[in-house]
Design a protein that fits this description.
Blueprint lengths: L1 E8 L2 H21 L7 E12 L10 E12 L7 H11 L3 E4 L7 H26 L4 E9 L6 E2 L18 E2 L4 E7 L1
Antiparallel strand pairs: 1-3, 1-4, 2-3, 5-8, 6-7
Helix pairs in contact: 1-2
Length: about 180
């Protein structure tokens, strides 16, 4: 989750002070919700002037400042995700820039998919070779054409979230191989 606080004030230092106070509460709440400090990292920090709407013929003027501080956090227990989102807002977070799902141990799972892809390619090669009156010989080339990143699929089940409903869905990993065998 990427979330944080935007605070506005007449001066940059006032906006920074308001933002820092609010972010300290947000970060403390994340830690009290069980998020490991190593899973909380600053994602962005900005100080920007706010401008008045220009009147025709006049240049816009700075009428204050806005400070935004966002953290990215890793929520390992998806059952707590709805509660954590609720706690973020309750603690003062007023910005959410994203919610992403990732597959843990994706490389290990991709390796299993690669093994299945090779086995499937060999099964098909034997089928084609037999239909042509030949046998599969030695491997000449192997090219991986898949290994795509996980992509969201149809939402499978809802999480039990007391506050914010979040659908965890399903992630799919796939591997594609092209193998050339010599024929005997």
């Amino acid at each position: 989750i990427t979330s944080g606080v935007t605070a506005d004030a007449a001066t940059a230092s006032e906006a920074l002070a308001k933002n820092s106070e609010a972010m300290q509460k947000v970060i403390a709440e994340l830690k009290s919700a069980g998020i490991d400090p190593k899973d909380i990292q600053t994602a962005s920090f900005r100080v920007e002037p706010r401008y008045t709407r220009p009147i025709e013929g006049q240049a816009p003027k700075i009428d204050g400042y806005s400070v935004t501080n966002e953290v990215q956090m890793l929520v390992r227990d998806l059952g707590k995700l709805g509660d954590i989102l609720d706690r973020l807002v309750t603690a003062g977070a007023n910005q959410t820039a994203g919610l992403n799902f990732e597959v843990s141990k994706a490389e290990t799972l991709l390796d299993e998919a690669r093994q299945q892809a090779v086995a499937n390619a060999l099964r098909r090669a034997k089928l084609y070779a037999a239909a042509a009156g030949a046998e599969v010989g030695e491997v000449l080339t192997i090219v991986e054409g898949g290994g795509e990143p996980p992509r969201p699929m149809v939402m499978a089940r809802a999480m039990k979230a007391e506050a914010v409903p979040i659908e965890r869905g399903t992630e799919t990993l796939e591997a594609n191989v092209t193998i050339t065998w010599a024929l005997k």
